[in-house]
Amino acid sequence: MSRVGTSQIALVARTFNVPVLVCCETYKFCERVQTDSFVSNELDDPDDLMVTRKGKTQLENWHDVSSLGLLNLVYDVTPPDFVDLVITDLGMIPCTSVPVVLRVKNLEQ
Q: For 15-69, how does the pLDDT look when each residue is reduced to its tens digit (9 = 90+)?
């Protein structure tokens, strides 16, 4: 998972054949699999979505509309197909090598 918007940027990069490199320390690797951004995520203040340069927005009084709820996700999931290389403290590895790193780390513990 990464900050929200990362997946869209990686998708556009893939569309235009621009390589996507991710920097991540191996201590952040985990065995948990996430297929979407909704199961385990942090939510930010929905009012932060209303901040504009001019200070006005169409949704200024969104609290008054009972059938409207705003969801401000903090992170999103970037599919491994969108990532060309992961740069770690062990060196540069493909996404497919992350499970191998986890296995080796578990054997060492």
A: 999 999 999 999 888 777 776 776 777 888 888 887 777 767 777 788 888 898 8
Q: Give the span between the Cα atoms of 49 and 32, in whole angstroms.
A: 29
Return the CATH superfamily for domain 2-108. Translation initiation factor eif-2b; domain 2 (3.40.50.10470)
Backbone conformation region of residue 9, classed left if phi is above 0, alpha if psi is from -120 to 50, else beta? alpha
Q: Which residues pair with 86 in a beta bridge?
A: 22, 93
How distant is the alpha carbon of residue 86 from its chain centre? 14
Count of C-beta atoms within a 10 Å radius of residue 51: 9
Q: Please, what sign has the CA dihedral across residues 35, 40, 44, 47? A: positive
Positive/negative CA dihedral, 46, 83, 95, 29: negative
